[in-house]
Design a protein that fits this description.
Layout lengths: L3 E7 L5 H14 L4 E5 L13 E2 L6 H8 L3 H11 L4 H8 L6 E5 L5 H4 L2 H10 L4 E7 L1 H4 L2 H18 L3 E5 L7 H12 L1 H8 L3 H12 L7 E2 L8 H13 L4 H5 L1
Parallel strand pairs: 1-4, 1-5, 2-3, 2-4, 5-6, 6-7
Helix pairs in contact: 1-12, 2-3, 8-11, 9-10
Length: 252
């Protein structure tokens, strides 16, 4: 079976876990077989029941006890321990007849994007059938400098993991309609963002670097609360794998 591995990535609080649940529910409603993989050993409660759960092998509490470290150190160790269970994770995934594998990554995005263990897992599962859904936090995104900062972080995840990416503006239900429109317009027309950044020297330099690198991509507005935008995420996934696009262009 040709599986598609969808990695949910974003800053803490951007809504990865709830979008994971919402997109899984949407796929199930469309009768598209899918499963959820939880990679966060520190998750205390989840809005979904993961089909594959890293907490079966270790939790943040276990790590703190066994290694004598605090919560921050335990999160780093937990991120690295994922590679030691990569084969087990793959074996459990393969027990399911599911085409879409939605992977909920740890809350602190750097624990996934910057650690070698994530590359080990991606390669083992199937790099060529993997992609990122990157969440732009709506509260941060609604200011020009905040949007630019998140754009830079999304670019860093692409450069680090070398996977195609679908950028989404999450939790749009908490923004005013005109705020959503403004942020989406920035992603579609960088010149509009440039006009609002005027006078911010360092931001202007970062803007030029990201624009020249071709990082700007249209944002998909989504809401896990209302289900808005789930069909657009699905269409984006189909475009990545079946749309005939050049993969290098999609990544960079």
């Amino acid at each position: 079976m040709d599986r598609i591995y969808i990695y949910m990535i974003g800053t803490a609080g951007s809504g990865k876990t709830y979008l994971t649940q919402a997109f899984s529910d949407w796929l199930s409603f469309k009768r598209l077989n899918n499963i959820i993989v939880n990679l966060d050993p520190g998750a205390e409660t989840l809005p979904y029941s993961p089909d594959v759960d890293v907490r079966e092998w270790f939790t943040l509490e276990d790590i703190m006890l066994n290694y004598g470290v605090g919560p921050n150190g335990a999160q780093i160790i937990g991120a690295d321990l994922i590679s030691t269970r990569a084969i087990d994770i793959k074996d459990e995934i393969e027990q399911y007849d599911a085409e879409y594998i939605i992977i909920d990554t740890p809350g602190q995005m750097e624990l996934f994007t910057l650690r070698r263990s994530s590359e080990v897992l991606i390669d083992l599962l199937d790099r060529k059938r993997s992609m990122i859904v990157y969440l732009f936090d709506p509260v941060v995104s609604k200011t020009p400098s905040g949007f630019l900062s998140l754009l830079f972080m999304s670019a860093s995840s692409v450069f680090r993991l070398k996977l195609p990416q679908i950028p989404v503006l999450s939790k749009v239900d908490i923004l005013e309609e005109e705020e959503v429109e403004r942020v989406v317009n920035w992603s579609n027309d960088p010149d509009e963002l440039y006009d609002e950044l005027s006078g911010e020297g360092l931001s202007i330099e970062l803007f030029h670097m990201l624009r020249d690198a071709g990082i700007f991509r249209p944002l998909i507005p989504v809401s896990a609360e209302t289900g808005y935008g789930m069909d657009d995420i699905y269409d984006g996934i189909q475009e990545v794998f079946y749309g005939g696009e050049d993969m290098e262009r999609l990544i960079f």
